[in-house]
Amino acid sequence: MSSDVIGSVLFTREQIEARAAEIGKQIEEDYKGKEIVLVGILRGAVMWMADVMKNINLDMEIDFMAVSSYEGKKSSGIVKIDKDLKCDIEGKDVIIVEDIVDSGVTLNYLVGYIATRGAASVKICSLLNKPANRKVDLDVAYIGFHVEDLFIVGYGLDFDQKYRNLPYITFLEE
Ligand code: IMP
Ligand code: MG
Q1: Upstream peptide bond of 19 is cis (omega within 30 degrees of 0)
Q2: For residue range 50-82, what is the model confidence (pLDDT) as tens digits?
Q3: Taking a C-beta distance cutoff of 8 angstroms, is the pair 90, 117 a contact?
Q4: For residue 70, how far is its CA from the centre of ligand 1 (angstroms)?
Q5: What is the dihedral sign for C-alpha 140, 145, 148, 151?
Q6: Other C-beta atoms within 10 Å of 89: how many?
Q7: Ligand 1 nearest atom to the CA of residue 105, by list position
Q8: Each residue of 110-152: pLDDT tens digit?
């Protein structure tokens, strides 16, 4: 049994789905006539990516990458690619789909990596933005919600691999 104490609900499933619909439609408008690839960052982005992609009525591909930088609640600051892209992104417009932007180190690295693989453009679509500990300057084009400096879990986000399945966003009490 875990001794973690779960906080109150910050965003419900309905709120998240409604926001995903708005962002999906925005992406559809912004990328009309383009060949887009959504790159989901495993594993945190899965629920959010599923919500957003079903609201984008364009021809598109999806792919996934897995990277690691976090152990427990603290970032190591080093990004390692555990699973690389399958599809060829050369000349394509890529949208990286992520669960949360915290220090920004992971996404800053990924944006650079995807650019070196020849993408025509790279933008970020993140479920959450936690600007309190930002370490690098990063442009996040599509943001679901802003959160305070809390340790967030649920809707894909984990603490030591737990709580990803919660159908809402909450946080762990200190
Ligand atoms: P960053 O490189 O510091 O921006 O961290 C990115 C990754 O850290 C995210 O993709 C998450 O996997 C993880 N992370 C950052 N903050 C939280 C949090 O509050 N809860 C769960 N995971 C987090
Ligand atoms: Mg993540």
Answers
A1: no
A2: 999 999 999 999 999 999 875 555 656 678 999
A3: yes
A4: 7
A5: negative
A6: 20
A7: 2
A8: 999 999 999 999 999 999 999 999 999 999 999 999 999 999 9
Distance 32 CA to ligand 1 centre (A): 31
pLDDT of residue 76: 61
Judge whether 102 counts as a catalytic residue: yes
| CB contact at 8 A, 52 and 97 | yes
Please tell me if the CB atom of residue 109 comes closer than 6 angstroms to any atom of ligand 1. no
d(CA 122, CA 120): 7
CA distance 147 to 140: 14
The answer to pTM > 0.85 is: yes
How far CA 121 is from CA of 66, 91, 101, 112, in Å, comes to 20, 8, 19, 11
User: Of all atoms in ligand 1, which is nearest to the CA of residue 108?
Assistant: 2
Q: Position of tokens 């599923």?
A: 50
* Region 16-33 average pLDDT: 98
The burial class, CB within 10 Å (0-12 / 13-18 / 19+), for 145 is: middle
